[in-house]
Design a protein that fits this description.
The protein is α+β, with helices and mostly antiparallel strands and 77 residues long. Helix content is 22%, strand content 22%.
Length: 77
């Protein structure tokens, strides 16, 4: 499963890992001002760690905003 968020200056694509298999969460991060054609993935670039954290936080905020609270609960807790 993936989630994508684009702002005027950045784009992030989060590949959601599967906790059951230990697959790591990874993704793509682009600086659209410097790289409008999205050719350089900055996800693992330490110089863009704060941008990645900010964009991932924005993705989480949007996911929480759009959560379907009418869905049946799977777990009893």
């Amino acid at each position: 499963m993936t989630t994508m968020l684009r702002r005027s200056d950045a784009k992030v694509v989060v590949w959601h890992g599967n906790p059951d298999t230990g697959t790591a969460q990874t993704g793509e991060l682009y600086d659209l001002n410097a790289d409008p054609r999205e050719l350089v993935n900055l996800w693992d670039d330490p110089e863009h760690a704060q941008l990645r954290a900010d964009m991932c936080a924005a993705v989480l905020d949007l996911q929480m905003w759009h959560e379907d609270r009418t869905a049946a609960r799977v777990a009893p807790w």
